[in-house]
Amino acid sequence: MVGKLAFLVLAFFALTTVCQSTIFYPVSESHRSAALELFASSDGPFVNLESTYEALRTFEVLGIEKSADIRFSVCTSVLDTLKSETVNLKDLFHALRANGLLKCEINYEVYGGIQSKFEDSLNSASALLDFYYAIGGLVLLKDHSPELKVNIGDADKIVRSIKALSQSDGRWQLTSNKPESSFDASGIALQAIAGVVSLSTSEINHSLIAAVKTDILKLFDGIEKYDDGAYSFEEKLVDASGHQGPLAASASVVRGITAFAAVSPETLN
Ligand SMILES: *[C@@H]1O[C@H](CO)[C@@H](O)[C@H](O)[C@H]1NC(C)=O
Question: Could you tell me which residue ranges the Ribophorin II N-terminal domain spans (predicted)?
């Protein structure tokens, strides 16, 4: 077990290094102008808030200043989304993420309405992404306004419901009625569980947390190692639509483990 844990920590650092080296790779003017061109095109990232967020994040990593035009148009779209009566959880979540980067001016009351939408949806959630968006949204709200009193109800119950979608190899299913599981979904699940731990006012049942830790160890049994020392999580399932490549799957797992380690540090030692 100790050997396995040491391996986990090693692999984890190897993965983090891979990610960091991508981020700190020297960015040239040509990268910047390519990104700007992409942003300006009509089928560019503004098609939805998810890709808008990804583009803004890319801009940040590349060190490109966001113009007043971009700020105005994204903030307008963020505000429209946050105020909409019919918006879904996913768009709300991505609007809050974009807002986190741009710090748009948003009235405090708007946040209250969103908070109760997320909290209510947690009561009826059963699919992994429903948990992920609702919990992620509440974490973003709390980051933005730490004084908010977020009430997620029975935290153990939520973690149990998310945990129920995990498979024996540490991969997760998106919903109980679809048999496919993936590394990408594992990263999503671990981020959601980490969010529950950070939002919960009481401690989460220790045996539940221990079970999640076991899932993480199982995940590492499925890791691919390359001659150059890189590690990657490669999905066994290759379906044409919506298939995430190894980079996206690995990034998702790393985000999940990082988030989980941050809220329960003693459990990954
Ligand atoms: C924690 O969960 C385990 C297994 O699900 C259960 O047996 C135990 O009673 C729970 N402990 C508490 C304090 O609720």
Answer: 28-264
Q: Is the model more confident about 89 or about 222?
A: 89
Check residue 127 and give its pLDDT: 95
Whether 126 lines ligand 1, by a CB cut-off of 6 Å, is no
Locate 170 and state its tokens.
């540490």
Cα angle value 187/191/194 (rounded, 5°): 140
Q: Whose CA is nearest to atom 9 of ligand 1?
A: 205
- For the chain, the average pLDDT equals 81
**Which atom from ligand 1 is nearest to the alpha carbon of 160?**
5
- For residues 37 and 44, what is the distance between their CA atoms, to the nearest angstrom? 9
User: Can you say whether the dihedral through the CA atoms of 99, 100, 104, 107 is positive or negative?
Assistant: positive
Token pair belonging to 106: 């948003």
Range list of H helices, 84-231 = 89-102, 108-124, 128-144, 155-163, 183-199, 206-221
* Ligand 1 center–CA 129 separation, angstroms: 26
Q: Which tokens in the block code for residue 124? A: 């009826």
**Three-class secondary structure of residue 224 per DSSP:** strand
Residue nearest to atom 1 of ligand 1 (CA): 205
Segment 138-165 shows an average pLDDT of 93
Residue 233 Cα to ligand 1 middle (Å): 32
pLDDT digits (tens, 9 = 90+) for 243-259: 556 777 888 888 998 89
CB of 135 closer than 8 Å to CB of 192: yes
C-alpha pair distances (Å), 238 with each of 93, 182, 246, 255: 28, 10, 11, 22
